[in-house]
Amino acid sequence: MVGGPFGYGRSRRPQQSFNNVTTFFFSNFPDNYGEYDMVKVFQRWARVKEVFISRRMNRWGRRYGFVRLFNVANVRRLEREMDQAWVGNMKLYVNIPRYRRSDLVHTEVPLRGKGVQSERSNMEERNGHKFKLREGNKKEEGRYYKGKERKEWREVNKNQSYADVVKKDSLNVWKGPIFETKQQTLPWLNNSAVGFFSGELSYNQVCEEFILGGMNMVKVRYLGDNMALITPNQGIRVEDIIRTNKQWFESVFEAVEPWTDAHVAGHKIIWVRCYGLPISLWNKDCFSKVVGEVASLVEVGKATENWENLEYARLQVRIPKTC
Protein backbone atom coordinates (compact mmCIF):
# COMPACT_ATOMS: atom_id res chain seq x y z
CA MET A 1 0.00 0.00 0.00
CA VAL A 2 1.42 3.38 -1.01
CA GLY A 3 0.87 6.36 1.26
CA GLY A 4 1.36 7.42 4.83
CA PRO A 5 -0.19 9.43 7.63
CA PHE A 6 0.44 12.63 5.68
CA GLY A 7 -0.34 11.28 2.21
CA TYR A 8 2.02 10.44 -0.63
CA GLY A 9 5.40 12.17 -0.82
CA ARG A 10 7.09 14.37 1.75
CA SER A 11 4.31 16.84 2.42
CA ARG A 12 4.45 18.34 5.92
CA ARG A 13 0.86 19.54 5.97
CA PRO A 14 -1.19 18.25 8.92
CA GLN A 15 -3.09 14.99 8.57
CA GLN A 16 -6.51 15.25 6.98
CA SER A 17 -9.55 13.98 8.84
CA PHE A 18 -11.16 10.75 7.64
CA ASN A 19 -14.35 12.56 6.64
CA ASN A 20 -12.35 14.55 4.04
CA VAL A 21 -11.06 11.38 2.36
CA THR A 22 -13.03 9.71 -0.46
CA THR A 23 -12.40 6.15 -1.60
CA PHE A 24 -12.73 5.01 -5.24
CA PHE A 25 -12.55 1.53 -6.74
CA PHE A 26 -10.55 1.16 -9.98
CA SER A 27 -9.66 -1.61 -12.42
CA ASN A 28 -8.59 -2.27 -16.03
CA PHE A 29 -5.08 -0.82 -15.91
CA PRO A 30 -1.81 -2.16 -17.36
CA ASP A 31 -0.26 -5.18 -15.67
CA ASN A 32 3.11 -3.46 -15.31
CA TYR A 33 1.58 -0.61 -13.28
CA GLY A 34 2.12 -0.75 -9.54
CA GLU A 35 0.86 1.34 -6.67
CA TYR A 36 3.40 4.14 -7.21
CA ASP A 37 2.45 4.35 -10.89
CA MET A 38 -1.25 4.65 -10.05
CA VAL A 39 -0.47 7.42 -7.55
CA LYS A 40 0.96 9.47 -10.42
CA VAL A 41 -2.19 8.79 -12.45
CA PHE A 42 -4.69 9.86 -9.77
CA GLN A 43 -2.81 12.88 -8.48
CA ARG A 44 -3.93 14.74 -11.63
CA TRP A 45 -7.37 15.13 -10.02
CA ALA A 46 -6.70 15.43 -6.27
CA ARG A 47 -4.15 14.90 -3.56
CA VAL A 48 -3.64 11.16 -3.02
CA LYS A 49 -3.64 9.73 0.48
CA GLU A 50 -2.91 6.13 -0.51
CA VAL A 51 -3.32 3.51 -3.23
CA PHE A 52 -3.92 -0.19 -2.66
CA ILE A 53 -3.79 -2.85 -5.40
CA SER A 54 -5.13 -6.29 -4.48
CA ARG A 55 -3.14 -9.42 -5.20
CA ARG A 56 -6.36 -11.17 -6.15
CA MET A 57 -8.23 -10.86 -9.42
CA ASN A 58 -11.85 -9.81 -9.79
CA ARG A 59 -14.50 -12.09 -11.24
CA TRP A 60 -13.46 -11.08 -14.78
CA GLY A 61 -9.81 -11.92 -14.18
CA ARG A 62 -8.63 -8.29 -13.99
CA ARG A 63 -6.47 -6.55 -11.42
CA TYR A 64 -8.21 -4.02 -9.21
CA GLY A 65 -7.54 -1.67 -6.34
CA PHE A 66 -8.65 1.30 -4.25
CA VAL A 67 -7.48 4.92 -4.17
CA ARG A 68 -8.19 7.43 -1.39
CA LEU A 69 -8.26 11.14 -2.31
CA PHE A 70 -8.30 14.20 -0.08
CA ASN A 71 -11.02 16.89 -0.17
CA VAL A 72 -13.15 15.80 -3.13
CA ALA A 73 -15.83 18.47 -3.62
CA ASN A 74 -18.06 16.58 -6.07
CA VAL A 75 -17.71 12.82 -5.77
CA ARG A 76 -20.00 11.87 -8.66
CA ARG A 77 -18.40 14.30 -11.08
CA LEU A 78 -14.88 13.14 -10.21
CA GLU A 79 -16.03 9.54 -10.57
CA ARG A 80 -17.25 10.22 -14.12
CA GLU A 81 -14.07 12.12 -15.06
CA MET A 82 -11.70 9.42 -13.84
CA ASP A 83 -13.84 6.71 -15.44
CA GLN A 84 -13.21 8.31 -18.84
CA ALA A 85 -9.42 8.39 -18.41
CA TRP A 86 -6.95 6.21 -20.29
CA VAL A 87 -3.84 4.62 -18.78
CA GLY A 88 -1.54 3.62 -21.60
CA ASN A 89 -3.76 1.89 -24.15
CA MET A 90 -6.37 0.78 -21.57
CA LYS A 91 -9.48 2.66 -20.47
CA LEU A 92 -9.59 3.00 -16.69
CA TYR A 93 -12.73 1.81 -14.85
CA VAL A 94 -13.49 3.87 -11.74
CA ASN A 95 -16.52 3.90 -9.45
CA ILE A 96 -17.47 4.28 -5.82
CA PRO A 97 -16.96 1.06 -3.83
CA ARG A 98 -20.08 -0.90 -3.00
CA TYR A 99 -19.35 -0.82 0.70
CA ARG A 100 -19.26 3.03 0.69
CA ARG A 101 -22.08 3.97 -1.69
CA SER A 102 -24.60 4.20 1.11
CA ASP A 103 -22.46 6.88 2.77
CA LEU A 104 -23.30 9.38 0.03
CA VAL A 105 -26.24 11.66 0.80
CA HIS A 106 -27.93 13.24 -2.22
CA THR A 107 -29.55 16.61 -1.70
CA GLU A 108 -31.49 18.69 -4.20
CA VAL A 109 -31.70 22.50 -4.38
CA PRO A 110 -35.33 23.77 -4.54
CA LEU A 111 -36.47 25.73 -7.58
CA ARG A 112 -36.66 29.46 -7.25
CA GLY A 113 -40.15 30.84 -6.86
CA LYS A 114 -42.97 30.99 -4.37
CA GLY A 115 -42.02 28.00 -2.34
CA VAL A 116 -42.11 25.67 -5.38
CA GLN A 117 -39.85 22.65 -5.13
CA SER A 118 -38.76 20.13 -7.70
CA GLU A 119 -40.33 16.70 -7.40
CA ARG A 120 -36.78 15.30 -7.30
CA SER A 121 -36.18 17.12 -4.01
CA ASN A 122 -38.38 14.50 -2.33
CA MET A 123 -36.33 11.63 -3.73
CA GLU A 124 -33.68 9.71 -1.83
CA GLU A 125 -31.20 7.60 -3.77
CA ARG A 126 -29.27 4.75 -2.18
CA ASN A 127 -27.27 2.06 -4.02
CA GLY A 128 -28.88 3.01 -7.31
CA HIS A 129 -32.51 2.76 -5.99
CA LYS A 130 -34.69 5.85 -5.49
CA PHE A 131 -37.26 6.18 -2.71
CA LYS A 132 -39.86 8.92 -2.77
CA LEU A 133 -40.69 10.32 0.65
CA ARG A 134 -44.44 10.86 0.40
CA GLU A 135 -46.64 12.44 2.98
CA GLY A 136 -47.06 10.11 5.92
CA ASN A 137 -43.78 8.33 5.17
CA LYS A 138 -41.23 8.96 7.88
CA LYS A 139 -37.49 9.08 7.59
CA GLU A 140 -35.82 7.91 10.76
CA GLU A 141 -32.18 7.38 11.53
CA GLY A 142 -30.95 4.47 9.44
CA ARG A 143 -34.47 3.57 8.12
CA TYR A 144 -36.57 4.47 5.10
CA TYR A 145 -40.20 3.61 4.45
CA LYS A 146 -41.86 3.15 1.08
CA GLY A 147 -45.56 2.47 1.56
CA LYS A 148 -45.95 -0.76 3.50
CA GLU A 149 -42.50 -1.99 2.51
CA ARG A 150 -39.70 -1.04 4.86
CA LYS A 151 -36.07 -0.67 3.79
CA GLU A 152 -33.45 -0.74 6.50
CA TRP A 153 -29.95 0.65 6.07
CA ARG A 154 -27.03 -0.03 8.36
CA GLU A 155 -24.20 2.35 8.98
CA VAL A 156 -20.97 1.16 7.37
CA ASN A 157 -17.94 0.89 9.61
CA LYS A 158 -15.74 3.67 8.33
CA ASN A 159 -12.68 2.24 10.08
CA GLN A 160 -12.85 -0.94 7.99
CA SER A 161 -9.51 -1.68 6.32
CA TYR A 162 -8.97 -2.41 2.66
CA ALA A 163 -7.90 -5.97 3.49
CA ASP A 164 -11.18 -6.61 5.33
CA VAL A 165 -13.20 -5.33 2.38
CA VAL A 166 -11.25 -7.40 -0.16
CA LYS A 167 -11.49 -10.57 1.94
CA LYS A 168 -15.21 -10.07 2.54
CA ASP A 169 -15.96 -9.87 -1.19
CA SER A 170 -13.50 -12.58 -2.20
CA LEU A 171 -14.10 -15.49 0.19
CA ASN A 172 -15.93 -18.52 -1.20
CA VAL A 173 -16.39 -16.83 -4.59
CA TRP A 174 -14.97 -18.42 -7.73
CA LYS A 175 -12.99 -15.72 -9.56
CA GLY A 176 -11.88 -17.79 -12.54
CA PRO A 177 -13.50 -18.10 -15.96
CA ILE A 178 -16.77 -20.00 -16.43
CA PHE A 179 -17.41 -21.79 -19.73
CA GLU A 180 -19.11 -24.78 -21.31
CA THR A 181 -17.31 -27.46 -23.30
CA LYS A 182 -17.90 -30.87 -24.82
CA GLN A 183 -17.04 -34.05 -22.92
CA GLN A 184 -15.40 -36.71 -25.04
CA THR A 185 -16.00 -40.43 -24.64
CA LEU A 186 -12.88 -42.60 -24.46
CA PRO A 187 -13.62 -46.35 -24.73
CA TRP A 188 -10.35 -47.39 -23.13
CA LEU A 189 -11.24 -45.41 -20.00
CA ASN A 190 -14.37 -47.49 -19.51
CA ASN A 191 -12.14 -50.56 -19.43
CA SER A 192 -9.73 -49.06 -16.88
CA ALA A 193 -9.42 -49.28 -13.11
CA VAL A 194 -7.92 -47.01 -10.46
CA GLY A 195 -5.55 -48.47 -7.90
CA PHE A 196 -4.90 -46.74 -4.57
CA PHE A 197 -1.40 -47.59 -3.40
CA SER A 198 -0.37 -47.17 0.24
CA GLY A 199 1.40 -44.09 1.54
CA GLU A 200 4.59 -46.07 2.03
CA LEU A 201 4.93 -46.59 -1.73
CA SER A 202 5.70 -44.06 -4.43
CA TYR A 203 4.49 -44.23 -8.02
CA ASN A 204 7.95 -45.27 -9.21
CA GLN A 205 7.94 -48.17 -6.77
CA VAL A 206 4.50 -49.23 -8.01
CA CYS A 207 5.83 -49.30 -11.58
CA GLU A 208 8.72 -51.46 -10.44
CA GLU A 209 6.27 -53.89 -8.82
CA PHE A 210 4.40 -54.23 -12.13
CA ILE A 211 7.67 -55.02 -13.95
CA LEU A 212 8.80 -57.53 -11.33
CA GLY A 213 5.33 -59.13 -11.28
CA GLY A 214 5.37 -59.65 -15.07
CA MET A 215 2.28 -57.50 -15.62
CA ASN A 216 3.24 -56.51 -19.15
CA MET A 217 -0.35 -56.84 -20.39
CA VAL A 218 -1.40 -53.60 -18.65
CA LYS A 219 -0.34 -49.97 -18.85
CA VAL A 220 0.08 -47.98 -15.62
CA ARG A 221 -0.23 -44.18 -15.54
CA TYR A 222 -0.02 -41.76 -12.64
CA LEU A 223 -3.26 -39.93 -11.73
CA GLY A 224 -1.79 -37.87 -8.92
CA ASP A 225 -1.92 -38.30 -5.16
CA ASN A 226 -1.79 -42.07 -4.43
CA MET A 227 -3.75 -43.16 -7.50
CA ALA A 228 -2.63 -45.07 -10.58
CA LEU A 229 -4.71 -45.69 -13.70
CA ILE A 230 -4.56 -49.34 -14.82
CA THR A 231 -5.48 -49.95 -18.47
CA PRO A 232 -5.16 -53.43 -20.06
CA ASN A 233 -4.15 -54.08 -23.65
CA GLN A 234 -6.84 -54.13 -26.29
CA GLY A 235 -9.06 -57.20 -26.15
CA ILE A 236 -8.42 -57.87 -22.43
CA ARG A 237 -10.90 -56.99 -19.68
CA VAL A 238 -9.47 -55.33 -16.61
CA GLU A 239 -11.86 -57.31 -14.37
CA ASP A 240 -10.37 -60.59 -15.61
CA ILE A 241 -6.81 -59.47 -14.87
CA ILE A 242 -7.67 -58.36 -11.33
CA ARG A 243 -9.65 -61.55 -10.64
CA THR A 244 -6.83 -63.78 -11.88
CA ASN A 245 -4.10 -61.90 -9.96
CA LYS A 246 -6.13 -60.93 -6.90
CA GLN A 247 -3.45 -61.78 -4.35
CA TRP A 248 -0.80 -59.81 -6.22
CA PHE A 249 -3.02 -56.71 -6.56
CA GLU A 250 -3.82 -56.82 -2.83
CA SER A 251 -0.11 -56.76 -2.03
CA VAL A 252 0.44 -53.58 -4.07
CA PHE A 253 -2.81 -51.63 -3.72
CA GLU A 254 -5.02 -50.88 -0.76
CA ALA A 255 -8.06 -50.79 -3.06
CA VAL A 256 -8.89 -51.10 -6.76
CA GLU A 257 -12.02 -49.53 -8.24
CA PRO A 258 -13.48 -49.08 -11.76
CA TRP A 259 -12.57 -45.70 -13.20
CA THR A 260 -15.13 -42.85 -12.99
CA ASP A 261 -15.04 -39.06 -13.41
CA ALA A 262 -15.00 -38.75 -9.61
CA HIS A 263 -11.43 -40.06 -9.40
CA VAL A 264 -9.65 -36.72 -9.08
CA ALA A 265 -6.57 -36.22 -6.93
CA GLY A 266 -7.27 -34.41 -3.66
CA HIS A 267 -3.62 -34.31 -2.59
CA LYS A 268 -0.34 -33.48 -4.27
CA ILE A 269 3.17 -34.88 -3.94
CA ILE A 270 5.97 -32.34 -3.57
CA TRP A 271 9.65 -32.29 -2.60
CA VAL A 272 10.71 -30.17 0.38
CA ARG A 273 14.00 -29.32 2.05
CA CYS A 274 14.42 -29.63 5.80
CA TYR A 275 17.09 -27.34 7.25
CA GLY A 276 18.51 -27.22 10.77
CA LEU A 277 17.82 -30.84 11.77
CA PRO A 278 20.83 -32.48 13.50
CA ILE A 279 22.39 -35.20 11.39
CA SER A 280 22.09 -37.67 14.27
CA LEU A 281 18.29 -37.43 13.90
CA TRP A 282 18.24 -38.18 10.18
CA ASN A 283 16.02 -41.25 10.09
CA LYS A 284 12.63 -42.08 8.60
CA ASP A 285 10.81 -42.04 11.93
CA CYS A 286 12.07 -38.53 12.73
CA PHE A 287 11.31 -37.26 9.23
CA SER A 288 7.73 -38.53 9.52
CA LYS A 289 7.23 -36.49 12.69
CA VAL A 290 8.99 -33.40 11.34
CA VAL A 291 6.67 -32.96 8.34
CA GLY A 292 3.74 -32.49 10.74
CA GLU A 293 0.15 -33.66 10.94
CA VAL A 294 -1.05 -32.11 7.66
CA ALA A 295 1.63 -33.74 5.50
CA SER A 296 2.75 -37.36 5.34
CA LEU A 297 6.16 -38.63 4.37
CA VAL A 298 6.36 -40.52 1.06
CA GLU A 299 10.04 -40.91 0.31
CA VAL A 300 13.48 -39.75 1.44
CA GLY A 301 15.82 -38.41 -1.23
CA LYS A 302 18.71 -40.61 -2.34
CA ALA A 303 21.29 -37.94 -1.49
CA THR A 304 19.89 -37.79 2.05
CA GLU A 305 19.79 -41.57 2.45
CA ASN A 306 23.39 -41.91 1.26
CA TRP A 307 24.65 -38.95 3.37
CA GLU A 308 25.90 -37.18 0.24
CA ASN A 309 24.41 -33.72 0.94
CA LEU A 310 24.42 -32.76 4.62
CA GLU A 311 23.21 -29.16 4.18
CA TYR A 312 19.55 -30.18 4.26
CA ALA A 313 17.37 -33.27 4.16
CA ARG A 314 15.38 -33.71 0.95
CA LEU A 315 11.94 -35.24 1.58
CA GLN A 316 8.98 -36.10 -0.61
CA VAL A 317 5.68 -35.41 1.18
CA ARG A 318 1.98 -35.69 0.44
CA ILE A 319 -0.17 -32.66 1.28
CA PRO A 320 -3.75 -31.55 0.50
CA LYS A 321 -4.14 -29.51 -2.67
CA THR A 322 -5.61 -26.65 -0.66
CA CYS A 323 -2.28 -26.07 1.11
UniProtKB/TrEMBL annotation:
| Record PANTHER family | DUF4283 DOMAIN PROTEIN, DUF4283 DOMAIN-CONTAINING PROTEIN
Q: Name a GO molecular-function annotation.
A: RNA binding
Q: Which SMART domains match?
A: RRM
> Which UniProt keywords are given for this protein, alphabetically ordered?
RNA-binding
Organism equals Phaseolus vulgaris (Kidney bean)
Q: Which domain of life is it from?
A: Eukaryota
Which Gene3D superfamilies does UniProt cross-reference here? 3.30.70.330
What name has this protein been given in UniProt?
RRM domain-containing protein
The record places domain RRM at: 22-99
* CDD domains registered for this protein in UniProt: RRM_SF
